[in-house]
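Hey, quick one: can you model this chain's 3D structure?
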Amino acid sequence: MNWVVYAVAAWVVMGLEYSLKHAPLSLTFGSVTLAPSFALVLMVWVALFAPPAQALWSALILGLLMDFISRLMLESGGTATLVGPMALAFLAGGRFVLASRWVMLRRNPVALGLMTVGAGFLVTIISAVPLAIHRVYGDPIFWHAWSYVLSGFGSAFYSGLLALPMALILNPASGAFGLDAARPAGPRRF
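Sure thing. Here's the predicted structure for all 190 residues.
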C-alpha cells in the first residue's frame, strides 16, 4: 500500500468529516442526529483490498484521527477529547471487514455499502463501551447511551448510502493506493 497516497486521502476524508458532517449532511430527529462518516467508508474500502496488517494499521490511524476531531461535551459545559474509543472501534471494524471480505464481490459498490453498514454497527457498539465505563466511574461526560447508539446505527446506514458514490471514486483509484483490486481476498487453497 502506498502510505503517502493514503495519508493524503485520510487528510481529505478528515476534512470532509470535520466540515460537512455536522451541518450540511446531518439529519436530526429529536435527540438523534444522523451524519455519514467519510472515514468509516475509507476504512472499509482499504480493509477490503489491503493486506491484513496494512488494513489494521490504516484502520487504527483513522480511528485515532477520529478521536482527535471528536469533542465530548462535559457536564460543566466545556468539551474534552478522549483518545481511544474510536481507535479501538475502527480497529475492530477493520478486523470485521478482513474476516468477511472473502465472501464479498469487493469491486461492487453495493458490497462497500453493506460492509460499511456492518462495520458502522460494530464501531458504534465498541466505541460506546469506553464512554459508558467513563460515565460509570464518575467522569463528567455528558453522554446518553441510547441516543448515541441510535445515532450511530442510523449514521451507519447513512454511511452505507454514502459508500455507493464513494466507491465510484475509490475503486478506480486502487492503483494509486497500491492495492491490487484484482487479487482474490479469500483463503488460499493448496
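One thing worth noting: Residues 3-18+35-177 form one domain.
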